[in-house]
Amino acid sequence: MALEVFARAGFHGASMNDVADAAGVTKPVLYQHFDSKRELYQALLEEVGTRLLRNIDKAASEATDGKSQTELGFRAYFRWVAEDHDAFLLLFGSGSRRDNEFAAAVRRITAESANAIAPLIAVDIDEDHRTTIAHALVGLAEGASRRLVDRGDAFDPDEIAAQVSALAWAGLRAVQRVD
Amino acid sequence: MALEVFARAGFHGASMNDVADAAGVTKPVLYQHFDSKRELYQALLEEVGTRLLRNIDKAASEATDGKSQTELGFRAYFRWVAEDHDAFLLLFGSGSRRDNEFAAAVRRITAESANAIAPLIAVDIDEDHRTTIAHALVGLAEGASRRLVDRGDAFDPDEIAAQVSALAWAGLRAVQRVD
DNA sequence: GCCGCCGGTTACCATTGGGTAACGTATGTC
DNA sequence: GACATACGTTACCCAATGGTAACCGGCGGC
User: Fold this and answer.
1) What's the whole-model pTM score?
2) The dihedral formed by the CA atoms of A92, A93, A95 and A99, expressed in degrees to the nearest 10
3) Which chain B residues touch A129 with a CB distance below 8 Å?
4) In this complex, is the C-beta atom of A137 within 8 Å of any C-beta atom belonging to chain B?
5) Is the CB of B32 under 7 A from strand C?
């Protein structure tokens, strides 16, 4: 599939012929569905990103308090990484963050994730700092995932989620206003 | 400078002519110093990454206990980001993580940062999980920085460092063994 | 059985950009 | 003042690749 090809080689590293071959068709057929390489790539980004967000939203919505929301959110995230390495690589293995147009799509995903986290920060720091901290926590998950994916071996997403969310939750409680 | 050009446009987005122009020379002159575009880029990565690591090492070595080591380490990191956006973008704005050869350089940086953090995790979880958590914390800083750099406005690195390191330190204490 | 349409393929075009060879010029020496 | 050397520039080559036009074979209708 196109996702796999782009995930492995990146936007520039994969040619339309590569993508076509992987899909078992030829280039002109690809161009019947997408006007350009960029459009195809962007469509993939959107699809993959939306899937991630939906997973997280669904999981978090089942939580009753902040703590379990954190746990379930991270668990959904790491499960997604575990079962869809390629999707993770496409979004965060990057090259997607290089190009302005693509970066916007990735930012949308991280921003929405951050928005889900921001309310969990209790202290009354200003909105801007709160958002930055929320983005930091998104990075937390990304950093752990990158290592796991790089290592290549399978891993237990729930186990990782337990540790990372413990870290995150304790951390969230500790953020202080700074004068 | 070459750093600025690559930071803005990425490896693929910047041509050797662009780099040469920015440096006030012409392409062949560039090729007197570097055998290829890749080599030039890699040299930049190494230089920039080493600078970051040196800053962190120096700062952390002045700390007496784990808590202040965390604080000083993050402070050095965010100061580096604040005063050298381009370096941050080159390493983590990515595109650098796409290419296997370049990714190795970036991994070296993150791995060394993680190694500095790992010993601060007190619980006796196995080495592998400890390292993953350490990478997560590196991602924490990266996530916050990306937002700050994306926003574009100047920011106070010490203030961010205070909040992020508070989060990190509290989080580190909370990581549990999982059975 | 012949004709036309339609989906797909091959073969091609044009641009971009890494890398280099050939050229020109200034400077210092005899 | 003529020549050689060294350095930088222009001009070029060629491979890769996004995108497309022209071709081809099979299938349904007459």
Assistant:
1) 0.91
2) 0
3) 159-160, 163
4) yes
5) no
